[in-house]
Design goal:
The complex is a heterodimer of chains A (about 350) and B (about 280).
Chain A lengths: L9 H7 L4 E4 L4 E4 L4 H6 L4 E2 L3 E6 L5 H15 L3 E6 L4 H5 L3 E4 L39 E7 L8 E4 L9 H14 L14 E8 L11 H13 L3 E8 L5 H10 L2 E7 L10 E7 L15 E5 L4 E5 L9 H21 L1
Parallel strand pairs in A: 4-10, 4-11, 5-8, 5-9, 9-10
Antiparallel strand pairs in A: 1-2, 2-3, 6-7, 11-12, 12-13, 13-14
Helix pairs in contact in A: 5-6, 6-7
Chain B lengths: L2 H7 L6 E6 L6 H9 L5 E6 L4 H7 L6 E5 L11 H11 L4 E6 L1 H7 L2 H12 L7 E9 L5 H10 L2 E7 L5 E9 L5 E10 L5 E3 L27 H9 L3 H6 L30
The chains are: A alpha/beta (about 350), B alpha/beta (about 280).
């Protein structure tokens, strides 16, 4: 999808810039932040407007839930309109549990570096940074999960299912999204000056409560894609990976633009991380090429913050067999050197 | 943390427990153990599997256990499980524990979508605040696998009862979701006694296998370990090269006072030497 901006001068274009968005010059796209700065970097800058992102969670973790909450909280901070759809929980409960915005001081490097006593030469070596590259502070905000956004700030939020529509079918949700996009002015057809950004979150896709009698999930995702493409909206969907069978999962993944898979960490030695992040698919537009990402990402969860880092294996310390081998080698080396002398 | 113990005793808040069993390895004894340990609650058993009189024999005879016959009127009654539960709540004043034996039987007559919704509603804090726990048994040989997967998603603890070669010995696999998002798996093996107690057999304890690694004696001609006071002395010792690194001590100055014979222009003072 490309946006036609040619008819405006540069100064006009600057005024037309939507709040909380960034224009990716390389891809000719408008991006919004996920609310997690390190996740933005992993997704090549942010989520493009007009796309659908799917987050698959495996084995009962709660990272997908946290990503959704950050996505909504970022929208609240940037004055975007928000639509929350959840059929298992009441959507209002999600809105009442959003992380709070904090100042970005935590990005400053923590000053005190301990002096090395013996290996002091190593103090000159650079500290390896496992954060993803191009983590920019200017775009996106930092949130603190231990505090909550006060409910007064939650204004532009719409909920589904609400009092008027209690039905839980895919077609009803689609109708509701369509109504919001057309009546509240998120369509690409309306004048540029009046444009706003809409963030849509759909939780627990493929839960048994969904009524798929009049529209099945694949058709729903295809129609949703058409709707989102022609509007200033971005959709984030979460689902549980283990409840979907493989054939349907492939179809679902085909119809969304970005796929993030969250897996639990199997290695007990990586206790720092709480899970793995696999990029199943990255939104690619204006190109036929598809560039897969080849880095393993891990999710790290503290009490206040969720962040994405490059996965590192910890150094192997207590490996007796290896140590013995090294000792043997050293013994051999010393005997030969003695002979040479 | 011992998951099994906390589930049986009910020491932690846990709104939904799913027990999956089969006809060879029945999981109803867990319901019995749970009902014994909830003295301060009202226990309501929804009986889908056997007649109420049979349950009264199987379960401990305590005054806080109530039985509801869902078996004989399952075909005629129009009352759903959720309605039955709301009726129960209306009557009781204490916190309520609901045991369902079994959900598979209820699923035979009801659409899974509705059952799932009812389970969600019964365990939601807003709609029925005084139901503190729902324990449901599912038979893996009756209910389809993907239904169980859906229910596993919403439950806090999932217990899989597996049979072994010995009919009295059962394997338990407990999957418990912690509040920090991690999932703990505990495997147990136990023998079912005739008085409905479950005696654990401790052959699966991995802690005992890991022996302590001490320093072997008579290995070297020098001492390998340090006593406490020796460690302390080692930490207090200031090594000479650490002094050099301290900024305040850097820069020893050479004091040299040139005398009259010194010639600063001389290129190499030693070139007259024959080396």
């Amino acid at each position: 999808m490309s946006f036609i901006l040619q008819s405006h001068t540069i100064s006009q274009r600057k005024n037309l810039k939507l709040k909380g968005t960034k224009t990716s010059v390389a891809k000719n796209q408008i991006l919004i932040s996920t609310g997690i700065v390190s996740l933005d970097a992993v997704l090549d800058g942010g989520i493009p407007i007009g796309t659908v992102t799917l987050v698959e969670e495996e084995n009962y973790g709660r990272n997908a839930d946290l990503i959704t909450k950050h996505f909504i909280a970022e929208g609240v901070v940037c004055d975007h309109s928000i639509l929350i759809a959840d059929i298992e929980k009441k959507p209002e409960t999600i809105a009442n549990d959003l992380p709070k915005l904090i100042q970005e001081e935590s990005f400053q490097p923590t000053g005190v570096v301990e002096d090395f006593k013996i290996a002091w030469r190593y103090s000159q070596n650079p500290i390896y940074d496992s954060k993803p590259h191009q983590t920019s502070i200017s775009f996106g905000h930092t949130f603190d999960m231990s505090a909550k956004i006060s409910t007064d700030e939650l204004q532009n939020i719409k909920y589904w299912p609400n009092v008027q529509s209690q039905s839980t079918s895919y077609s009803h949700l689609l109708e509701f999204i369509n109504k919001v996009i057309t009546t509240d002015g998120f369509s690409t057809k309306i004048p540029v000056e009046q444009r706003h950004v809409l963030r849509i979150t759909i939780n627990n896709l493929f839960s048994p409560i969904w009524d798929s009698n009049d529209m099945d999930i694949v058709k729903f995702l295809y129609k949703l894609r058409i709707l989102i493409r022609s509007s200033y909206a971005t959709c984030l969907i979460t689902t549980r990976a283990q409840i979907i069978n493989n054939i349907i999962k492939c179809r679902i993944e085909h119809f969304v633009d970005t796929v993030l898979i969250l897996k639990p960490m199997e290695l007990s030695s990586c206790a720092d991380y709480n899970g793995k992040l696999i990029i199943g698919k990255l939104a690619s537009f204006n190109t036929f090429l598809y560039e897969p990402s080849c880095v393993d990402w891990a999710t790290k969860l503290t009490r206040k913050k969720l962040c994405i880092e490059k996965l590192h294996l910890p150094p192997c310390l207590n490996d007796d067999e290896n140590n013995e081998n090294i000792q043997n080698k050293q013994l051999c080396a010393s005997t030969t050197s003695r002979l040479n002398f | 943390m011992d998951v099994y113990d906390s589930i049986i005793r009910g020491t932690q808040p846990n709104r939904l427990i799913i027990i999956e069993d089969s006809f060879l390895a029945k999981g109803q004894f867990i319901l019995h153990l749970i009902s014994e340990n909830r003295k301060s609650h009202d226990i309501h058993v929804l009986c889908f599997e056997h007649l109420v009189s049979q349950y009264q024999k199987l379960f401990p005879s305590l005054s806080n256990i109530h039985y509801y016959d869902c078996m004989t009127n399952i075909l005629s009654s129009t009352l759903s499980m959720y309605e039955t539960v709301t009726n129960i709540i209306a009557q009781s004043t204490k916190n309520v524990v609901i045991l369902i034996d079994s959900l598979s039987m209820y699923l035979l007559g009801t659409d899974f979508r509705n059952v799932y919704k009812e389970v969600l509603e019964i365990t939601s804090l807003e709609k029925v605040p005084n139901v503190v726990q729902l324990v449901a048994v599912i038979h893996e040989d009756v209910t389809e696998k993907h239904y169980t997967e859906h229910l596993k998603n919403i439950c806090k603890t999932y217990i899989h009862v597996q049979n072994t070669n010995n009919p009295l010995v059962l394997n338990l696999r407990l999957e418990h979701k912690r509040s920090n998002g991690k999932c703990v798996v505990q495997k147990l093996k136990g023998e079912l006694k005739s008085d409905c107690t479950f005696k654990l057999i401790n052959d699966l304890l991995p802690q005992t296998i890991e022996e302590e690694k001490g320093i072997p004696k008579n290995l070297a001609s020098f001492k390998l370990d340090l006593q406490e006071n020796e460690k302390k002395a080692k930490e207090e010792l200031v090594l000479p090269y650490t002094l050099v690194q301290n900024a305040s001590n850097i820069g020893g100055i050479i004091h040299y006072i040139p005398d009259e014979a010194d010639d600063w222009d001389e290129e190499d003072p030693d070139d007259d030497l024959e080396i």
